[in-house]
């Protein structure tokens, strides 16, 4: 596939309601989209970084820089045998996985259209629908959190993830469990604890959580292994896993029993599939995480979640939980059973709506 033109744009999109984690509150998203033109076709990718370097070091500015000055010049005006060949070309750049993933994923979108198959089919996905959970941020009060959980359960979502941090953890989970004793529940700490908190983290074992996500350092494996040895609750890693190499090391030392795979964090489909395949060969469940994506990133998450090893409900949920109006048609909807149907049409299976994208755009740059 011969790459003719690449466009970058940054969108401002206000969230329907704020989203708060242990590292801060988000009310407005800054979303960087990549549009690639090749062989008369158009592919889309999304940079899934946060606005600030709190989840990872990537931000819209670092992504723009790495894309404009390195990734785009390396990609343009060349023919690529496959999107994975591009991923290999990007390997000399250390990190910046979210910037890399946005281009690589756009090429997968183009290749799927070229072959006339769905993106899910192209990457080897077999699930026709994917089980969905929701991630609920820290709220202003526990009653507000309980109301949100009740509403999401009524919509059909199959599991509830709540964000925790010191001071918003054991008591909150106690109140959730006493109101909703049987639900599939998990907690995500986004690195808010250290091994000094071991006694407190052990209290989580009372709540039959499916898992506790990334309790310790964002770049740690070794302390998570120590924690997992002292905890009945399975540890799931998010922030610490950037490659199949990281996943292998984490599993080898017992740092986790479950892995959350995010396309951006791991650098695109090539790497995501390697992690998936490794986990599947070792019977380690995986699930697809979310980064408050627009419809474009969300559509990619749906395709990824169609791989057979994605057996646990992911953080891939309906457009309407995030946006008054999403930038794709149709918007992503979730059935009363808490599932999303994987589209069968060629490519992403959702159409980006140019007028809405234009309206939300605050800057753009084209390269040819
Ligand atoms: O840790 O999974 C996370 C959102 C932003 C940054 C990190 C995380 C999250 C979520 C939200 O949990 C998932 C979503 O609904 O997109
Ligand atoms: Mg997480």
Descriptive report:
- The chain has 368 residues and is an alpha/beta fold.
- It has helices spanning 60-75, 83-90, 97-115, 119-122, 142-155, 170-179, 198-202, 222-229, 244-252, 263-266, 269-281, 295-304, 354-360; strands at 3-21, 24-38, 41-47, 129-131, 133-136, 159-163, 185-188, 212-213, 235-237, 258-261, 286-288, 328-329, 339-341, 351-352, 361-367.
- The strands form four sheets. The protein has a seven-stranded parallel beta sheet with strand order 5-6-7-8-9-10-11. Strands 3-2-1-15 form a four-stranded antiparallel beta sheet, with helices on both faces. Strands 4-13 form a two-stranded antiparallel ribbon.
- α2 (83-90) runs antiparallel to α3 (97-115) and α9 (244-252) runs parallel beside α11 (269-281).
- 51% of the residues are buried.
- The mean pLDDT is 98.
Show the helix and strand layout.
Elements lengths: L2 E19 L2 E15 L2 E7 L12 H16 L7 H8 L6 H19 L3 H4 L6 E3 L1 E4 L5 H14 L3 E5 L6 H10 L5 E4 L9 H5 L9 E2 L8 H8 L5 E3 L6 H9 L5 E4 L1 H4 L2 H13 L4 E3 L6 H10 L23 E2 L9 E3 L9 E2 L1 H7 E7 L1
Parallel strand pairs: 5-6, 6-7, 7-8, 8-9, 9-10, 10-11
Antiparallel strand pairs: 1-2, 1-15, 2-3, 4-13, 12-14
2-succinylbenzoate binds next to loops.
